[in-house]
Amino acid sequence: MTQKPAGHRACRRSFTGQPLGGLQKIRIRHDDTGRRPGWFLERIIIRNEETDQEWSFPCSLWLASDESDEQTDRILDLA
């Protein structure tokens, strides 16, 4: 079982663009650069602010080359 790091925090980002349609999977990754670049990802929630439709993509894993399975790239399935 993956343990959450102490003192973890929520992060919120907003984006605008094309309509999303029916999401089934998403890909999340980072380039693993910088000081202590790894991060623990609990889940991603995508919300259409016009319709209030939400998609939830659970993860509960590290995105880090020095933690857990050492992956910085993940494909997440819709919950």
Radius of gyration: 14 Å
In spatial order, strands of the major sheet run: 1-4
Provide the structure class: mainly beta
> What would the principal axes of the Cα set say about the shape?
elongated
Low-confidence stretches: none
How much strand content do the residues show?
Answer: 35-45%
Helix tally equals: 0
Question: How would a textbook summarize the main sheet?
Answer: 2 strands, antiparallel
In brief:
With 79 residues, this protein is mainly β.
Any descriptors?
79 residues; mainly beta; two-stranded antiparallel sheet; 0% helix
Q: How does this structure look, described?
A:
The protein is an all-beta fold and 79 residues long. Helices cover 0% and strands 37% of the residues. It has strands spanning 25-29, 39-47, 54-63, 73-77. β2 and β3 form a beta hairpin. It is elongated. The mean pLDDT is 86.
Please write out the topology.
Elements: E1 25-29, E2 39-47, E3 54-63, E4 73-77
Antiparallel strand pairs: 1-4, 2-3
